[in-house]
Amino acid sequence: MLASAPCGAMGITELQMGIYGALSSAVTGLRAQSHALENISGNIANSQTTGYKRMETSFVDLIPDAPLRSQVPGAVLAQSRATNNIQGDIQTSSNETYIALNSGGFFVVEPKVGQSDGNSVFAGSNYFTRRGDFEIDKDGLLVNGAGYYLKGLPIDPATGNISGSVPEVIKLSNAFLPANVTTTINYQSNLPQLPKTASYNATVYNSELLGAQNFGATATTAAANGTADLGAGAGANVATSVFADGQEMTVTVNGAPVRFRYYTGATPPTGGGVAINLDAPKTVQNVLDEMQAGLRDFGGGAAASATVGLNGSNQFAVSLGSDYHASFSISGTTPALATTLGLTEPQASSAPALGTVNTITADDADDFVANSISGGAITVYASNGAPVNVQVRWAKVDSAAAGGADKWNMFYLSDSKAVGGSTAWTNIGQEYKFNSNGSLANSVPQATISNLRVNGVLIGDVVLQHETNGVSQFADVNGTVTVSTLNQNGYGAGEFLSVAITDSGRVVATYSNGERIEMAQVVTAQFNGVNSLKRLDGGVYAATSESGEPIFDLSGSGVIGGALEASNTDISDEFTKLIITQQAYSAGTRIVSTADEMLQEALNMIR
């Protein structure tokens, strides 16, 4: 009996150790469920907190070292697990400075550390948040409901490009927006192949053209002269002194041939053409007059005002009169007649020359408007912000159908109050020439209006930006200009009205002059280990070695303006976890009670 007492005491001790182990495991379970309850209560408490990310509880079992056949489940350890990668619901808001993220990133923010001379002081540290309820404070800074200030990169208002690479606290200015002088007008349009001006008449040749010669431009018409001096008073000589029976001559105007056939006797020649009888009392001048009439009748519109006669040097002369577009040629002339007149066979006329109309006087303004079509109007701004209305008109100055090429000039109203011989309209100085398919024959991606001045207000040099193929000439039944793009880059001074953050993450200020100026770009940050960020007060996070360094995104991708991200807490799910946690905790307390009773029984055995 004495020898067995130590063994019994040792068995009781082992029994007590097992009960103590069960008691210890139950206590860790209670502690773990208490931690879970703490997370659940925090989630429920923050179910309405903007941008809040709920905390989950992970349970880890702790296994004591023991032989394979004597292993026990062991104790438990509760750990918190972040849900930063789970997005809450996006809710719209009427506040234009509220923003949400439809991505896995974070806004970059910073707390204020103090004031110096009335200015906010920042330490330059970066924190990260999903809470986007930003509003403008008294200093023009964007601060959210937790007191953290939004950071981004400034934008150069002149170019619209981001400047800098290190995020800084966004500061807005409510100062007046200074005026910006107009330097560029973006203009794209289609000009009709046939402009139907007020003076256009379908039955009148070239009535759609400006007629540069009618506005003071120096222009010459196509002409051809013989080299033979027919002598003074040759026009009064009998016709047969120059022309003879059976002779011919063809004048081709703009592709339309007119064949003259000279004969004597009562029977005209057969085979067509304009037959001219030479019998007395016909004179040379009579023949020339008949040639002129025939040329006007059968030479097409370009020959409607053609002249045939003798010039001051008593030479045979043909011209197209008041037509400054077409040319002609003389061919098929009987050799003897060519020799008599001193013509080269064939003989081409001189080329017509159109003058350039640089300005239109007030006296000619009504006629100019009647012979041109409107190209739109736009308000531009001087350096002091003075607005000026620029009216544009297009005038077709030449035409392929008339024997030349399709050419246009653009004019602007430089002085609406001009009188008499003062300039009212001014040519911008750029010729627009078109191919038969309606595209520009001379590439004009842009043109410059030098020293643009309207009604005495100087704007300066202004670039008309057309881009490639921005101006075309396609058929248009209305005969009017169709303007597809017309805007400019100037504006007058404006008072600050409001600010908004766009879906591209741009902070945009609106002014009383209607301008919307981009002032900053919101920067977002991505993390490889997003759930390893350290949580801080106010819904912000700090980077850790486990989360990795932030990867900044300057594109504004995922930003939604006028919206907020709600908490990702699901109340019903949290209540379910609450019930489970309560039951687990209650079960743990029963283990403690049972272990206590068993321990008491073991102690009683010793007594």
TrEMBL record:
Flagellar basal body rod protein N-terminal domain residues: 25-53
Superkingdom in the source lineage: Bacteria
Keyword flag Cytoplasm: no
Keywords from the named record: Bacterial flagellum, Cell projection, Cilium, Flagellum
Keyword field contains Iron-sulfur: no
Predominant subcellular localization, coarse grouping: other
UniProt xrefs under SUPFAM superfamilies: Flagellar hook protein flgE
Flagellar hook protein FlgE/F/G-like D1 domain ranges (all copies): 102-161
InterPro entries to which the protein is assigned, alphabetical: Flag_bb_rod_N (IPR001444), Flagellar_FlgE/F/G (IPR020013), Flg_bb/hook_C_dom (IPR010930), FlgE/F/G-like (IPR037925), FlgE_D2 (IPR011491), LlgE_F_G-like_D1 (IPR053967)
Domain Flagellar hook protein FlgE D2: 377-491
GO BP annotations, alphabetical order: bacterial-type flagellum-dependent swarming motility
One CC-aspect GO term: bacterial-type flagellum basal body
Entry's localization field: Bacterial flagellum basal body
Sequence similarity: Belongs to the flagella basal body rod proteins family.
Function summary: A flexible structure which links the flagellar filament to the drive apparatus in the basal body.
Stated name of the protein: Flagellar hook protein FlgE
Taxonomic lineage of the native organism: Bacteria, Pseudomonadati, Pseudomonadota, Alphaproteobacteria, Hyphomicrobiales
